[in-house]
Structure formats: C-alpha cells, structure tokens
Amino acid sequence: MKKRILSGMRPTGKLHLGHYFGALENWVKLQEDYDCFFEIADVQALTDNYDNPAKVRENVREVTMDYLAAGIDPKRATIFIQSMIPEIAELTVFYSNLVTVSRLYRNPTVKTEAKQKKALFGQDAEGITYGFLGYPVSQAADITAFKGEVIPVGEDQLPLIEQCREIVRKFNHIYGDTLVEPEALLSENTRIKGLDGNKMSKSLNNAIYLSDNEEAITKKIMGAVTDPSKLKKDDPANPEVCMVYSYQKLVNPEIDKVCSECKAGKRGCVGCKRELIQCMLDYLKPIQEKRKYYEEHPEIVDQILKEGTEKARKEAAHVTNEVKDHMLIHYFE
Ligand code: TRP
Q1: What sign results for the dihedral spanned by CA atoms 103, 106, 107, 110?
Q2: Which residues neighbour 300 within 8 Å (Cβ) at sequence distance 6 or greater?
Q3: What is the number of domains present in the chain?
Q4: Does 153 sit in the ligand 1 pocket, CB within 6 Å?
Q5: What would the pLDDT profile of 50-64 be if each residue is shown by its tens digit?
Q6: What CA–CA distance (Å, rounded) separates 55 from 46?
Q7: pTM above 0.90, yes or no
C-alpha cells in the first residue's frame, strides 16, 4: 500500500517560482510513489481575505491550472476544493477543544503572518480574528481528514505540522487511537528569494510567475540584484550574493561555467542576465504550453476539480465517522 500524502496551497494568486521550487516540483515527483491528495485551501485563504471573496474564487481555478501545468497528474493525484468538504469544518470544531489559545498565539507561523498583516489586524494581537488565529487547527483537520502521513511543504509550514501532531496525540490519548501523526517532508530548495533579495512575495513585485510572459520575465530579470561590489564588466564577483546566480542555479544546466566565469571576472552582468532569461523561458515553456491547454479548456479543469472533490469527500466522510465514533457522538445509523 502506498503511503498517503496531503498538501495544499491557498488560492490567493497565481503561483510563482517560490511555490514551484519550494513545493510543487517535489509534489510532481512524489506522485509516482505516494497516494497524493492536493488541496486548494480556499477556506484558509478566506481567513485573511474574508473581505475579498472574489479574489479567492478567481484563484481556485488559476491555482488548479498551475498545479496541472507543473505536472500534477489528475489520474494519479486527487485535487480538491477545501470548502466543498464540510467534514473538514466539523473536525476543526472538534479539534478546537484540544488546543489552547496561548499555544496558537505562540505558533511562529501565525506570529509572523499576523505581523505581516498589520493592515488587517492592527499593530498587535488584539485585532487578530478568531478564524485566523485558529487556522492551524483547520489545517490539522485538512491533514487528518485524509489520514495524511507525509506532508511535503516548505520550511515556513513546519510549526503547522507540529501543531497538527500535537492535536493528533492529544486526540488519540483522550478518545483512543484514531488519527495518524503526520510527518513533514521538506523540499531541497525551500527558500527561494525574490529578484531583489527579499522574501519572494506578490506585494514586493519581486517574483516570477509560472504564467509570466517573455516581456515580464525579461523586465524582472534585467532589474535583478547582482553583487554590489562588482562595478565594471570584467571585475571578478561573488556569485553567492547575486540573485541572478541563485536563479541560474535553478534553471541553467551550465551552472559550473556561470560560477567560474563570474568569479574570474569573465562574465558581465548584462550578458549573464540575458542568458538567464533564455534559460528561464526554456524552463517554463513546457509548463506554459500545458497551462495554455487548460486555459483553453476550462470545462476539463472543472471536471478534474469536481471528480477530485467527490473522491476526497468520501475519504473525509469515512475518517470523520471514525472520529465521531471515538468521541461518542455517533448516535444513530
Ligand atoms: N498553509 C499552507 C500554505 O499557506 C496551505 C495549506 C492548507 C496546507 N492546508 C494544508 C499545507 C495542509 C499542507 C497541508 O501554503
């Protein structure tokens, strides 16, 4: 029997290279050897976008197309929409008794994200909503509703997996062995920085999207930050502090040559950027061709989501019945 994988992303925008190299590329490889469930986490996206439901709705299909374009194969993996699995919401309510409010405030991911969302929640914790504070509980429900054993994620998600493990242990201790304790599986390239050297993020406009066209990619790469100590074309430079080099590592097969030429002062930054643009376009070409196919066939995307969600719902209903049995809240057949 193959082990079960569960992971997901929030549909708040199209996916960029941070999502791709930080998670998606790994998911594509894992679908060979695992029984995979990949969630479109629209309920979680609403925890900090509750005032913009149109944005979340629009991006459910965009993110699904990005999953498919990147190589998620709907014949092998199940793609589903979180909000259409009401059992996840039920489990969230049951688990909320097993987590203290102070533990949630101390969750490093919640803390960092709350800080980043000053505009939404105010300067301090006072303005944070119940739903946002509790999203780790809901994420534990996402995972356990499918008895997810292996959770392939980026580093930022580790505190959420740990929170889920605590909930599972407490549940099993109180109600008897029911749930499976998941394990995180980190990707190799977990922290892809933006072209300006900051964390890759939509608001900083420093990300390359899987669906970016040639013009956008050219503009972004030409503006990328290089070694500031290199002033002239033939100055030797340090590739380790150069954002262009960090992207060359991901997409350029001739990376050793790039590195030695840069260190020896035999490589100007403009030429290096031009080379990266070409490698990036080549790398993204098959992904973009696949995406185009799905953009032209929205009915196929909908069918994949519908079938995946139906399959996921059966799984979640099965686990939720077991949970209710153990909690002694299963009253009639
Ligand atoms: N929190 C994840 C993110 O922000 C998305 C997510 C939702 C998730 N449910 C999940 C990841 C379950 C792993 C497992 O990207």
Answers
A1: positive
A2: 294
A3: 2
A4: yes
A5: 999 999 999 999 999
A6: 9
A7: yes
